[in-house]
Amino acid sequence: MIQNYFLIFWRNMARNKVYAAINIIGLAIGLASCILIYLYVQHELSYDTYFSKHERVYRVVNDLIVEDEVEKASVTHAALAPALAADFPEIEAAVRMINRGKQVLRLDDKAITIDYTFWADSNYFQIFDYRLLEGDPKTALLEPNSVVLSTDVATKFFGNSSDALFSTMRVGSQSYKVTGVFEPVDGAHMKPNVLTSFSTIPADIRQGMGGNWGNTNSYTYVLLQHASDGAALQAKLPDFVQSRIAPARGNTTERMELQLQALTDIHLNTDYLWEAFPVGKKSYIYIFSFVGVFILLIASINYMNLATARSAKRAKEVGLRKVVGANRSQLVTQFLSESVMLTLLAVLLALMLVELMLPTFNSLADKQISSTYFTDPDFLLLLLAIALFIGLVAGSYPALVLSHFKPVDILKTGKTQAGGGALLRKGLVVLQFTISLVLIIGTAVVYSQMHYLKSQDLGFTKEQVLVVDIPSGDTTIVSKMPVMKSELTKNPNITSATTSAMIPGQSTGVIIFNVERDKQMVEKTFNTIWVDYEFLDLMNIPLLAGRNFSKDMSTDLQYGIIVNESAARAMGWEEPIGKRIGGSDTTRAKVIGMVKDFNYTSLHNQIEPLVIMLGPENNGYLMARISPGNLEQTLAHVESTWRRLAPSHPMDYFFLDDSFNEQYRAEEKMLTIFGYFTLLTILIACMGLFGLAAFTAEQRTKEIGIRKVLGSSVTGIVVLLTKDFALLVCLAILIASPIAWYGMWHWLQDFAYRTPISAWVFIASGLVALGIAIFTVSFKATRAAMEDPVRALRTE
Amino acid sequence: MSKEDFIIETQQLEKKYITDTVETTALAGVDLRIAKGEFVAVMGPSGCGKSTLLNILGLLDSPSGGSFRFLGQDISHASERQRAKIRKHNLGFVFQSFNLIDELTVEENIGLPLAYLGIPRAETEKRVKEAMERMGIAHRHAHFPQQLSGGQQQRVAIARATVSNPSLILADEPTGNLDSVHGREVMSLLSELNDAGTTVVMVTHSPSDAEYAHRIVNLFDGQIVTESLNARKHAAELL
Question: Do A594 and A574 contact (CB within 8 A), yes or no?
Fold first, then answer.
């Protein structure tokens, strides 16, 4: 009997290729999208689970509270890890990582700038058990001047990892021995390329790090004896701060709270500053999961709708099977097994699609999801379960409807009660288009927000600014900067050059100042940047009061402070110039100027109070404002100047606007992926609509024939057939608009600067959906209307 | 004749169709007995209830009133499952419009009732082959219905109706869609089956087809108005 079902299924498909294609391709696209989303979500949710002890690993983070402001810092003091390990027996190991940023690595003549280099304690691999292709994880970071490379870096220098071991290379200005090569892990919140042994840092500096607990620069991780120790340890931390840290910090109103953050929580549940790598967003996980479910739903609805709509075609077969003795349950089984067979075919096709789309998806989502899921029994089982579920659910309604037919009605009159279900079909079409429209509107709002962000006046000119990385810690190069600046500006295409410690779009420093307020001195934390004399001019940041830093004022270097408007407002200064503000010595440090507010982080955030200090020696970036045109020539000049003055370091440059826009990369990525999935959703929904239109045209053949005999034009017929569907889409527009508005309103709350959601977004999205729907339906309707009326009547 | 000799017995059989506003009586108290091995033709004008009667006799429809015994068993109130069981074991249907499944080949169509009876494959193949040979369509075994002429399709339908050796064949205007030559062929086949012992009940408009029956039942407005024995048939059988 199963063989018989299979035969019928196969021949039905072969005979109705269009329907079969709509069903299988639609479902396959839906399933493929869903699988990709599943893999993405799974990947996001499984961050750091690669490490075998992940359940016992916590990161210690810092809440710094001054008055009622909380500064949440992902970095802590370098002294914290050893202190915690010494005080708490439940801590099996504690490890520090300090970000060294970009470093130039050098092997013989080969020099490459590598980002994401870290100092790490010797027990690093005890907590993060990366697979070491070379070297011993226990000892690799033990000795001073040891470096462990990721396979990517090792390959860049050595061609393969085995040649790297025990080679000597330079990292920055020092010489290191390669003691290990590890395989990087994509699903980890820290993705170091290079790890250098903490013991390399000279003992006196290390001692200093532990000194006053004032300098936070270390990521601190602890490995607990038992995963359940977390809460108990957390409870002990306030006392620890009180007894170990507070005395060393002396008299300060700043309060510190240490928090334990589970390793696996870091990627998605963090809102801490100074993360070394971009973190994920939980909301995107939800959004994508919804999109995945919706796409699958739409594809399943297609199957249901087409199957019930076409039930009339199968009615005769049902009648006959009943006549020759089939009972209802046998028929239900037959139709359900057909639907499951179809779903399984769709699954096979979907897996092929996933294989094809995965590389593109990876590059869109910036992930390295591999197709090893094929060997994951859980995944395959889940897939099978989904296929069965969709097969059964999507097939259940048609199966029940079809098996319910009365043979007498069908065989005698050829008619069935299959007209029923029309309302359900319409409802499902409305649901499909509602979902599609929500996605269209969502995409449109995300797009307009991105456009809004990029076109916002940031308060400074980010275009045409070339930025060159200054290798950190290389005092020789730093000392050459004044010459470098003047050499650069010799080129007529370079209007000015400066250096600074940070560039807009990056995290700033956070410093506790003693500040004058109401004639008293209070403690207050401020975001702080260190810049060079030309910074404000180069960036076109206008001064509202006072003056810029000046080389003629020798006191500026130590005591000159420029604030932004927000800082003045926050301190309640009506006349900011001359107000006292400084570190320990506040007798002479004063506000010398106030600049107009500019967006120095991103438009996700409101502009916060900012202190600008002069620090030409404390710089990480060389910036040059260049004229448009002659870019190649200008770059050549910058490069030759760099080579001449800093021959030991390759020049590593980028453009400020690119790096500033990098912050919206998460949103941009989402927009692109969202856009693709929206397209797929509409495609699948339209495939279904096409099928239904074909069915309606077929069903109304006689009516079309009669109308044409009576004088209706082709247009009249097309309008007749299209009208009903258009009405359904209009209804969907009405339902989708408020849902989409609400959803997008929520999404926009994440931005301090938001585009208004204009009515045009809804009107345009509605028109797009309506247009696509009408095009789809009228394509089929026109063909039906062009038919010879006599044929239509005869077939009836 | 004893009760056991009747395959069908109806008493005051009624069928009413009720719509929102109108009640239509299709059958109004039909008393009919059909003996095993009989060939009965049901005649009457359009809308007199012939097909309704045939559908009820074929357990495709249920009566609104009266009693209906099939092989001595009262099945007026049988469930759909019971009726499906009786259909599959005892009944064969032949329709005016052949009603073959387009997606199945000739042999698959014929084998379908055996599949629902759970007959093993080898046995099915054997019986399907025999049925095709009997109907003269063996050479068309792999064809699909739409590749056959009307007469051939009806022979496939008869083969399908008889492959499970049913005790009763119900034929609803079996020659209605055929030309006279093919019509005669089909009637001969039914007659042969009847000669071999199968009871046949046939609804027809055609007096010449009715000539093949032992007995002609005339329906009018849902009632049996006349019943006549077919003298020629009886005479032929006596000869």
Answer: no
Taking CB atoms and an 8 Å limit, are A7 and B160 in contact across chains? no
Q: Do A323 and B87 touch (CB under 8 A)?
A: yes
Residues of A in contact with B84 (CB under 8 A): 322, 325-328
Measured between beta carbons, the chain B residues lying within 8 angstroms of A7 are 103-104, 108
Does the beta-carbon distance from A316 to B55 stay under 8 Å?
Answer: no
Residue A143: phi, psi to the nearest 5?
-75, 150
Is residue A292 located within the same domain as residue A192?
no
Residue A194 counted as domain residue: yes
Q: With contact defined as beta carbons under 8 Å apart, do A235 and A41 qualify?
A: no
Q: Is A714 domain-assigned?
A: yes
**Based on the domain organization, do A639 and A669 belong to the same domain?**
no
Q: Is A412–B55 a contact, with Cβ atoms under 8 angstroms apart?
A: yes
Q: Rounded distance, CA B97 to CA A472, Å? A: 90
The three-state secondary structure class of A543 is: strand
Low-confidence ranges of chain A (pLDDT < 70): 208-214, 312, 410-421, 473, 583-587, 709, 788-796
Region for residue A355 given its phi and psi (left: phi exceeds 0; alpha: psi -120 to 50; beta: otherwise): alpha
Residue A569 belongs to what domain range?
A: 472-648
Q: Looking at chain A, how many residues does it have?
A: 796
> Do residues A517 and A626 share a domain?
yes
Q: What is the mean pLDDT of chain B?
A: 88
User: Which residues of chain A make contact with B60, given a CB cutoff of 8 A?
Assistant: 322-323, 406-408, 411
Q: What DSSP line would sit under A470-528, residue for residue?
A: PPTT-HHHHHTHHHHHHHHTTSTTEEEEEEES--TTS--EEEEEEEEETTEEEEEEEEE
Q: What is the ipTM of this complex?
A: 0.72
CA distance A121 to A129: 14
Chains A, B: CB contacts within 8 A come to 77
Answer yes or no: do A81 and A142 share one domain. Answer: yes
Give the CATH number, domain containing residue B118.
3.40.50.300
Residues A77 and A105 grouped into a single domain: yes
Domain shared by A644 and A676, yes or no: no
For residue A17, the chain B residues in CB contact (below 8 A) are none
Domain that holds residue B98: 37-63+79-238
* Tokens representing residue A766 in the block: 């509605």
Q: Please give the single-letter amino acid code of residue A4.
A: N
Structure confidence at residue A421 (pLDDT):
67
| Inter-chain residue contact B103 with A4, CB threshold 8 Å | no
Partners of residue A2 in chain B, C-beta under 8 Å: none
Tell me if B155 is assigned to some domain.
yes
Looking only at Cα atoms, what is the longest distance across chain B? Answer: 56
A359 occurs within a structural domain: no
**Overall average pLDDT of the B142-154 stretch:** 90
Minimum distance, in Å, between the CA of residue A422 and any CA atom of chain B: 21
pLDDT at A231: 92
Residue A570 lies in a domain: yes
Residue-wise pLDDT for A202-242, tens only, equals 877 777 665 556 678 899 999 999 988 899 999 999 999 99
Give the C-alpha separation, A343 to A300, whole Å.
Answer: 9
Distance CA A9, CA A612 (A): 74
Pair A498, A644 in one domain? yes
| Tokens at A480, concatenated | 């050459």
Number of structural domains, chain B?
1
Q: Residue B27 falls within a domain, yes or no?
A: no
Domain tally, chain A = 3
User: Does residue A509 sit in the same domain as residue A615?
Assistant: yes
Sequence-separated (6 or more) residues with CB below 8 Å from residue A455: none
Confidence band, pLDDT 50/70/90 cuts, at residue B18? confident
Closest CA to A670 of A295, A291, A364: A364
Task: Tell me the pairing of strands A194-197 and A110-120.
Answer: parallel
Tens-place pLDDT, residues A703-715: 777 777 677 778 8
